[in-house]
Structure formats: C-alpha cells, structure tokens
C-alpha cells in the first residue's frame, strides 16, 4: 500500500525545521521518519503514526482523529494513529509532530537484532 505522499511532504517540511538528524525508512507499508535514529512518526495512506510520551497517551487520544495504535492487533501505549483527514492545517499537523519530537529527546532507541 502506498503512503500519502502529500502528508509525508508536509511532515518532512516541519521535521526539517526542527534542525534534528532525520532519516526516512520505508516500513510497515508506509514511510517512517526516524529522528536521532529513533522512530518518531510514520505516514501511511490514510493515517499518521505518532510516537509520544506514554504519560500523555490518554490525553492525546481525546484529540480529534486520534486512535490507539493496534498495528499488530495489540494496543501499543505510547503510539497513536491520527486520521490523515484531520490533519488539514499546519497547526494541526505541527501539534502531533511537536509531541513526537518532545518525546524523542528521552525515548530509547530500539535494540538492534543480532
């Protein structure tokens, strides 16, 4: 399934403004933006994945378009899906990217498989 290229371009522009080290990886049928070698946000066709502080998870779920990330069938606290149709303005998209970038500072890197 292709990812939403327009949403990816908008996210890429906001992430570039952050001045952080950003890499893009195709994974899970979408495009993942790695910041400082840690998963930060991902873009699929009709939603965006946001990695955020588990402490603000419940509050974030109350936001328009937010849903638990259940990619594997199991809810992953600290990860949220946001419906792309709700990300209609730069401030709305910026809200989610800002949450992800704030958590990225303290998030642990994934353990590399040997």
Global mean pLDDT:
92
Q: What is the oligomer described by this structure? A: single chain
Q: Which runs of at least 5 residues are low in confidence (pLDDT < 50)? A: none
Helical percentage: 25-40%
User: How many E-type strands?
Assistant: 6
Q: Which term fits the overall shape?
A: globular
Structural class: alpha+beta
Rounded to an integer in angstroms, the radius of gyration calculated over CA atoms is 13 Å
Using the coordinates shown, work out and report the CATH topology: Aspartate Aminotransferase, domain 1
What topology, given as strand order, has the largest sheet? 1-2-3-4-6-5
**In percent, how much strand structure appears in the residues?**
25-35%
Topology as H/E string? Answer: HEEEEHEEH
List keywords for this structure.
single chain; 114 residues; alpha+beta; Aspartate Aminotransferase, domain 1; 6-stranded antiparallel beta sheet; 3 helices
Question: Any overview of this molecule?
Answer:
- By secondary structure, this protein is of the alpha+beta class.
- It has a single domain (5-104), classed as Aspartate Aminotransferase, domain 1.
- 29% of the residues lie in helices and 27% in strands.
- The protein is built from three helices and six strands.
- It has helices at residues 5-17, 57-61, 90-104, and strands spanning 22-27, 30-35, 38-43, 47-51, 66-68, 79-83.
- The chain has a six-stranded antiparallel beta sheet.
- Strand 2 and strand 3 (38-43) form a beta hairpin.
- The longest helix has 15 residues, at 90-104.
- The relative contact order is 0.19.
């Amino acid at each position: 399934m292709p990812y939403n290229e327009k949403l990816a371009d908008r996210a890429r522009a906001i992430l570039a403004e952050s001045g952080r080290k950003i890499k893009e990886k195709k994974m899970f049928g979408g495009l993942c933006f790695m910041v400082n070698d840690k998963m930060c946000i991902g873009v699929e066709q009709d939603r965006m994945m946001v990695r955020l502080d588990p402490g603000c998870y419940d509050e974030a779920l109350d936001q328009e378009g937010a849903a638990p990330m259940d990619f594997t069938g199991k809810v992953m606290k600290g990860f949220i899906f946001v419906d792309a149709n709700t990300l209609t303005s730069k401030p709305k998209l910026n809200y989610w990217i800002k949450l992800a970038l704030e958590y990225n500072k303290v998030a642990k890197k994934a353990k590399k498989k040997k």
